[in-house]
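We examine the record.

___
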Amino acid sequence: MFNETLVILQRELWKAFAQTFVMMGISFVLSLILGLALGFVLYLTETPAFYPKKSLNAVAAAIVNFIRSIPFIILVVFTLPFTFWLVGTKIGPIAASVPMTISATVFLARLVESSLKETDPGVIEAALASGARPWLIIRKVLLVEAAPSIARAVTVVFINLIGASAMAGMVGGGGIGNLAVQYGYYRYETGVMLFTIVVLVIVVQLSQYLGDKVAKHLSH
């Protein structure tokens, strides 16, 4: 069994790693940009001290809640027509990154909104009382105060994307998840399954460690 596991890993492992890297890379970068922006929109349009827009906040919150209500595996199937329109295919790591990005974006947006709401209101009130403009307060006060919490939120989203990439592999996305299912489950190659579990555990632990270090560095 050990020799056969080695043969399979030598033949398939690097391809699976490459596919997972593509899925994770695209979805993480895009969700980081879009999620942060959407999180700030949710917070700023709800807070009277900044840019209160009840209608915009209600629409953004409704979209976020709708998408978050859909389990990821169903979201993958639900977004297939959009995925095909956007990237021209329904299978492969690039196609899988579309629902992964959508799911991670709304998840991060809510976490960012929560992080911003945890900021001490007294600090913001003091900045307003000093005559600082809202944009300056966002950059110099809000971002600085919420940075550690946002760093932890980004870490959580990245780890969730690892799990999402494994699920995406089951529906044509490829990657580590597909390797584990195709060989570890369907072909009863227990060694392949155990190896992928160990790799994923190491990646998650390393990601959490780095995320905690960044959050600690940003704390003041």
